[in-house]
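Supplementary notes for students who missed Thursday's class. We covered one full example, reproduced here. Read the sequence, then the structure, then the short commentary at the end.
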Amino acid sequence: MRRMRMMTWGGLVLVSLLAMGCQGNKPDEKNQALTAQNAELQKQLAAAQAQLAATPDARSLSALQQQLAQRDQEIAKLKEDAANRVATPAPANTPGLEGVETTFDPSAGTITATLQGDVLFDSGKATLRGSAQAALNKIIADIKKQYPGHRLYVDGHTDIDPINKSSDQWGDNFDLSYFRAKAVADYLTDNGIDTKQVTIRAYGPNDPKKSKAASRRVEIVVKVK
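Structure (token representation):
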């Protein structure tokens, strides 16, 4: 490409110089024709330079193509994972809560219902939104029906960002995660769950998920075995 650029520039400049050099030795008509030709060549030169400037470097183009190919592979993998999660139902005998999405840990003998913090609370707050009560009511009803008297853990989690905007309320992320978990635990016990069943745990930023939004959560862990 560099050689082509040099040839394009050199060829056009050479013709331009020849044209200008002939102007002093020819009649006026010839001078005018050469002047017009020189102007046209100058336009062609400018167009050639613009085209070369717009043409990406070969190495840059190759790197961009590799990035796009890698991105396509990542997107395809995410789609495949999502399809597998939908297509693979949990075994019929897996413990859970009716109508509530949970995960089962057979080694610990627990099921976990995850509630996103951004759904339960306003940013930097530990007061339950009214809209969160429907989901909690469903969990409470299912626990009473399927696991009465079982040990429950209410776990508070945050993202890894330090407390800034609400530093006047919380000393750190552990404070925030504790009081968010306590707000959920208080709602459970206020609505029929025995306080002796419930233990509050605050993990702060120590168990993050893949995104900050997913990391901000409260988990209700039921000991089923």
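Commentary. The chain has a mean pLDDT of 79. The helical segments are 2-22, 28-54, 58-87, 117-120, 133-146, 173-190, 212-215. If anything here is unclear, bring it to office hours.
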